[in-house]
Amino acid sequence: MLEPLELTGSSENLKLKQRKITYFMVIMATLPILAIIISLVIGRYAISLPEFFNAILSKVFQSNTGESSTIETVLFNVRIPRILSALMVGAALSVAGASYQGLFKNPMVSPDILGASAGAGFGAALGILLSFGDFGVQILAFLFGLTAVAVTYLISMIIGRSNNATLVLVLTGMVVSALFSSFISITKYVADPYDKLPAITFYLMGGLSSVTMKDVKILLIPLIVGIIPLILLRWKLNVLSFGEEESKALGIDTSKLRVVIIICSTLITAGAVSISGMIGWIGLIIPHIARMVVGPDFKVLLPSSLLIGSTFLLLVDDIARCTFSMEIPLGILTSLIGAPFFIYLLIKGRRGWI
Fold first, then answer.
1. ∠ CA 220-323-38 to the nearest 5 degrees?
2. Which of 119, 150, 197, 230 falls between 20 and 30 A from 20, CA-CA?
3. d(CA 349, CA 343)
4. Residue 205 is inside which H or E element, if any?
5. Which of 118-127, 235-244, 251-260, 277-286 has the lowest mean pLDDT?
6. Residues 116, 270 contacting (CB under 8 angstroms)
7. How confident is the model at residue 2 (pLDDT cuts 50, 70, 90)?
8. SS3 label, residue 267
9. Would residue 277 be called left, alpha or beta, if left means φ above 0 and alpha means ψ between -120 and 50 degrees?
């Protein structure tokens, strides 16, 4: 009689765990909505909720509700594009970080592990040096981000072996990142110290102050192309976490899966960096937070990382634009928040990681 009871208890525990995860997912799905409402009304130009709804109605129905043109300008030209871009960049970096951590089976991995961030940073710095417009800078950043990862992958394929392909890929990514970081330093060294150098430096610190709705539409393309396959393939990341031989025994083509994950993660990382600059720590700490909440199952870990990451960056951006009279670069704030939290994780240990 003990075995059926044990099975029943185990089944009940599993149902209880699934119920808790469902509750957590519902809560996390409401967090971006609450963060959006907060972000819409706070700022140097405060807007009340009635004023916001009146402006929306005026925009939708092309009617005159009595709201000033200043409110509509602040909302539709500044605040809403910035909110959308913060949500998208936070989601992109978090999903890329979680995917890379599952691919390399290493909780210390972040989206810039293969050189995407450094390559995109060099592309943007080069575009600013050559006096390209905002669109040209973003295109160069995106293309060089893809180029850096492509170089990393090609070199690793040339020198790697089947038994240590992952290690070679990571080491090559570190070398390529260092190479493009050197290119960034050279670009800053030859830039005009009174014009181009401050612009390059400010971009590399990360920020969303100059984002427009056009930038949001541009970012939406690589975001959709990259995130949807990762969400659809997230269950295979669970299998990949068991190891190369076990994954192949279960019928997973690890080589093709690795290429798909790298391409998709690179697309969303390069797209995010091209719009926001180099914002660190999000792709590293957000998957850890999601893992602490819902566990290591990538079927819920990836959507959780997306929701938590988007909310986190939006709230950090609110702090950046509202705390002081001068806006704080996002990269500084994410480092100030992320570094102490990661130290806490290191002290606590790697519990919950497969």
1. 50
2. 230
3. 10
4. none
5. 235-244
6. yes
7. very low
8. helix
9. left
> First and final CA of the chain: distance in angstroms?
33
Q: What amino acid occupies position 30? A: T
User: Exposed/middle/buried for 186, CB within 10 Å: 0-12, 13-18, 19+?
Assistant: middle
Instruction: Express each pLDDT in 278-289 by its tens digit.
Output: 998 999 999 999
The tokens describing 26, both together, are 């519902």
Q: Within a 10 A sphere around the Cβ of 326, how many other Cβ atoms?
A: 6
**CA distances, 20 to each of 14, 16, 167, 294 (Å):** 10, 6, 36, 8
243 DSSP 8-state letter:
-
Residue type for position 9 = G
Which pair of structure tokens corresponds to residue 301? 């870990």
pLDDT classification of 108: cutoffs 50, 70, 90? confident
- pTM for this predicted structure: 0.89
Contacts of 340 (CB under 8 A, 6+ apart): none
User: Could you report the per-residue pLDDT of 182-229, keeping only the tens digit for each?
Assistant: 999 999 999 999 889 999 999 999 999 889 999 999 999 999 999 999
- Is 32 within 8 Å of 311 (Cβ atoms)? yes
Distance between CA atoms of residues 340 and 82, nearest Å: 27
Distance (Å, whole) CA 121 – CA 142: 9
Q: How far is CA 164 from the centre of its chain?
A: 28
Task: Locate 148 and state its tokens.
Answer: 């850096």
Q: Mean of the pLDDT values across residues 330-351? A: 81
Residue 45 per-residue DSSP state: S
Residue that wins the pLDDT comparison between 11 and 153 = 153
DSSP code per residue over 207-232: --TT--HHHHHHHHHHHHHHHHHHHH
The residue assigned the tokens 């939006």 is: 314
Number of other CB atoms surrounding residue 308 within 10 Å: 24
- Phi/psi-derived region of residue 285, left when phi > 0, alpha when psi is between -120 and 50, beta in every other case: alpha
Domain 2-348 annotated CATH 3.40.50.880 = no
Residue 167 has which token pair? 């290690």
